[in-house]
Specification:
The protein is mainly α and 220 residues long. Helices cover 68% and strands 0% of the residues. The chain contains 9 helices and no strands. It has helices at 7-13, 29-32, 37-42, 47-66, 71-96, 110-131, 136-153, 158-178, 180-204. The longest helix is centred in the middle third of the chain and has 26 residues, at 71-96. The two termini are 40 Å apart.
């Protein structure tokens, strides 16, 4: 059986983990998110641009889910409007001697793709590590979380679920940055309670499951 520390001892140790960050991170939230333009957007460093992107995503969701716009029709109409705006701008600039906009200013920077590439690789590695079952606590937490998401997905359409994820991605990081101390304290308390329950489950259920002995092969 596992031995658990008393609540008084855990409370006394809270003073030693006051500076602990969520998920055990040591860097700032901006650095964890990549430290580039993507992090600036998620943390609303440029409020007008972040608000414009969130508003655009909301409009797309409204057109598809509420108005029930067809995807191909919407893309074609947007492309026509953009082409007409560019044509009118360049035509007017020739007659009014305006400075034409630089096309390189509207291209997507390579740093955004490098950040996405690193995050996808990290996610795949973490998925493999958790799936290997070396840490039963993380394994069962991920299985339970995926099951909960699958249940939620039965009551929402894919578009609504995707829109909800985008809204959370655009709002939760900035809210967490503002109330980081309060969230970290709540997460530490919840994590301690969850570890107690999982350790009891490990000692009373998993440890009693018979497992065969693995014979080591002799190296020649």
């Amino acid at each position: 059986m596992l031995i658990y520390s008393s609540s008084e001892a855990e409370d006394s140790n809270d003073h030693n983990v006051v500076t602990a960050k969520l998920f055990g991170r040591e860097r700032s939230l901006h650095s964890v998110l990549g430290g580039g333009q993507v992090a600036n957007l998620l943390l609303w460093r440029n409020k007008s641009l972040s608000a414009a992107i969130l508003l655009a995503i909301t409009m797309i969701w409204f057109l598809f889910e509420v108005v029930e716009y067809n995807f191909v029709t919407l893309i074609c109409h947007i492309s026509i409007v953009v082409m007409l705006m560019v044509f009118i701008t360049y035509t007017a600039a020739k007659f009014a001697n305006w400075d034409l906009p630089d096309i390189h200013e509207i291209t997507i920077q390579e740093s955004a793709f490098r950040w996405l590439y690193r995050k996808v690789n990290w996610l795949l590695l973490r998925f493999y590590e958790i799936s290997s079952g070396e840490n039963f606590i993380e394994f069962f937490l991920v299985i339970g979380s995926l099951w909960i998401i699958s249940v939620i997905g039965n009551y929402f359409s894919s578009l609504n679920l995707l829109f909800f994820c985008f809204v959370c991605l655009g709002t939760l990081p900035v809210f967490y940055e503002q109330y980081e101390g309060e969230v970290d304290r709540l997460v530490r308390k919840g994590s301690k309670d969850a570890k107690k329950v999982l350790k009891k489950f490990d000692s009373k259920v998993l440890d009693k499951i018979p497992r065969g002995r693995v014979k080591e092969k002799k190296r020649k």
